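User: For a benchmark we're assembling, each entry needs the component sequences followed by a predicted structure for the full assembly. Here are entry 17's components. Please fill in the structure.
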Amino acid sequence: MSYYDIDSILTDAEKIPCTFQLDVPDLGYLDNTPTQPLKAGTRVNLPLWLAEMLVIANSGDIEGKPFVTFDLPPGLGNDVVQALKADPRAVPLRDQSPHFYGLAARLMELLDEKELATVLRKTFVVRASEIALHARKVGGLGQHKGKSAAEEGCNLGIGGAGEDFLRGLDESERKLFRKAHDGAKSGKEWMEGIKKH
Amino acid sequence: MPIYGDLGNKLVQHAKRTQNLAHLPPYQTELVRAVTREVRELDKDVASLLEPYQGSFDPSADQATACTLLVNHLSMRRNKRCLLAYHRTRTDKLEELVWSGADPLDLAGLQAGAVNDAAAADGGESSSLSPQEEDYFRQYGDLLAAYKGQWTDIDLTGSLEPPRDLFIDVRVLKDAGEIQTEYGAINLTKNSQFYVRQGDVERLIAQGYLQKLG
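Assistant: Structure for entry 17:
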């Protein structure tokens, strides 16, 4: 994750529900009331880049309490986790957050949630192999139906049953899909090139 | 009410879109200006918050102020990152353009933009680069030329595809004037067709003056 990485910056903009632990007179605007002080106990959705440091700040002191505490966003809530446990492939992660894994990984650094981490890890593995499967299918189409079908397949991405699954991929999974797909395609092209000479 | 950093986010979304485009979309002058203005405002806020303390601010004694300062500081840092990432994405693209032989259409757009700003304001054919980016583009081009100049017998920006034939048929898409080849001079006028050595015209093909046939 580079400082300049666009996806990492966009992940940083994902919001999580936070609760302020102290009164802050000047931060009312965070709760849409710029003229009022922000009261302790106010719940606001803050982007990760803000929330993370506010949570960490002061936690080093023995007496100090953090400025804010946070909860898991709905995308990582119980409903979603139960669904992921049942079948990782059936959950459109993109609907939860376009940067689902990026967000999850950042939150795992702040929390000690071993079980959630395990579910997420398993989710990634199961979905990754499904992605690889779909990516290869697109490349393989051409071998059965000739070149035009292969090109068609590339343009459409993929048709039929896999469509819903692929639409639900989060940003990192999309990258994975593209890499797997391009790899299979270049491999095939190379093989064909060899035969010609 | 938008919170600090929202504008920076817009900028990064522009950058994200830019990554997937072949060309460079127009520079977001207004947005960049708005984000830098936001940073300046935040900095002013911080200065006025700290002023009464005369340099002896104790964060643990005044938690609320400490929290506000932290939020302001983080917002500035966030904006800085958004600005840098936006510009970096664009310079990466510019360098790519230089290496690929630079789209002459884009260059024409540059010149038109420089000559008549009035037409540019109308939203006509105008440059999509900021003046600084144009400088960057030009200077990077000079750098690359100087670097390439060290090897006279290798064209570093030449095609990586091994040629099938030494000679190829080309059609002239745009007047490119006269070029010198081993076999004499050729006058490249629009819509004419030639059988030439590939090495002689590779640059012109890359720049879109010629089209390879067959």
